Amino acid sequence: xxxxxxxxxxxxxxxxxxxxxxxxxxxxxxxxxxxxxxxxxxxxxxxxxxxxxxxxxxxxxxxxxxxxxxxxxxxxxxxxxxxxxxxxxxxxxxxxxxxxxxxxxxxxxxxxxxxxxxxxxxxxxxxxxxxxxxxxxxxxxxxxxxxxxxxxxxxxxxxxxxxxxxxxxxxxxxxxxxxxxxxxxxxxxxxxxxxxxxxxxxxxxxxxxxxxxxxxxxxxxxxxxxxxxxxxxxxxxxxxxxxxxxxxxxxxxxxxxxxxxxxxxxxxxxxxxxxxxxxxxxxxxxxxxxxxxxxxxxxxxxxxxxxxxxxxxxxxxxxxxxxxxxxxxxxxxxxxxxxxxxxxxxxxxxxxxxxxxxxxxxxxxxxxxxxxxxxxxxxxxxxxxxxxxxxxxxxxxxxxxx
Length: 402
Ligand SMILES: Nc1ncnc2c1ncn2[C@@H]1O[C@H](COP(=O)(O)OP(=O)(O)OP(=O)(O)O)[C@@H](O)[C@H]1O
Hints:
Layout: E1 6-20, H1 25-31, E2 39-53, E3 57-61, H2 68-76, E4 83-88, E5 92-95, H3 108-118, H4 123-137, H5 152-165, E6 170-173, H6 182-197, E7 201-205, H7 209-215, E8 218-223, E9 226-231, H8 233-254, H9 258-262, E10 263-272, E11 287-295, E12 303-310, E13 315-320, E14 335-341, E15 349-358, E16 364-376
Parallel strand pairs: 3-7, 3-8, 5-6, 6-7
Antiparallel strand pairs: 1-2, 1-4, 8-9, 10-11, 11-14, 12-13, 12-15, 15-16
Helix pairs in contact: 3-4, 3-5, 4-5
This protein binds adenosine-5'-triphosphate.
Adenosine-5'-triphosphate binds near residues 17, 19, 64, 67 and 70.
Organism: Agreia pratensis
GO molecular function: ABC-type transporter activity; ATP binding; ATP hydrolysis activity
Protein name: ABC-2 type transport system ATP-binding protein
């Protein structure tokens, strides 16, 4: 759990990169050392102020190029901000992009010692942890091979194993974890959870919104180098989806495709059949999702889609009028479609309803993520998104010799 003690403090941090504008090698040579005419400033971070308390787990999210990795590097002291100030306390371990921290010509073993010493361990301490590090990495057969021959997965395994054994107060993880195979990812996430329970601070860059809602107690959404939202992960994922939707519409408009902007999901609601909106949904209910659509120019062969997500952002159920082989009349003025999903058995918790208007070829014309929500009451027999009553039998002592 987060305390009130800040371990990281950023004050008005901005980062400028200078981008060269020449296109060809020849142009670069001709213009070498010349004026700023061929250079352009690019602000990857703009005026970011953040305070991160000890014991918190922060997810950094945002579209490609929004500045997540740059921010993580600024927090880790790997890059200097162009303006502003970064303060950090405690021992840091950072898992940034592949290639950072390891020397390609050295073996895995040598890199473990080198990397651990950079992160602040003495040789004696590294001797003590060495077997554990190799064991966690699962690459003992390659530990005396030069790391330039490693696959990216092997590389990340070793780097992560070192990072978690240096007893960090603050762990920075860029998306490198996505490189490992699923079993290793799970192992890393378990380790991160253990770190959380030990009160360490974790800052995670990820594209997995599920990971953010599941693992983090706070999320920072970046857009074009600025903080667009800072707060509850669940809310941040909604803001992020809205941001992507706005971008998509802008993009479509700038390409002269105003047909995309013409379609609208106007509203939606969810309830159990025979009961009012807002009442809890019980196992065995018929769920009614009602959604209203319109299209400025008129749209033939359109498709209405609904999806139900868990609070972790995982899709639990989805269907479309196309799947149901239902053809809808031309859409122009507001028209309401009602989906009735019979005999639902959701596990306890909150669920979100997403509604989309699509063209017949599957192009999304308008998405309204989390446009409605419902709750399923708690029951103590089981956990998960499926409601089902378990039966358990004790089969008795088993003779293992047979
Ligand atoms: N060394 C650099 N020189 C010039 N521009 C850079 C440099 N590093 C990053 N940038 C630019 O800064 C912007 C932010 O990059 P950054 O890698 O932080 O984004 P990101 O949010 O992590 O993106 P992604 O999700 O694609 O990993 C990008 O436009 C990138 O091209």
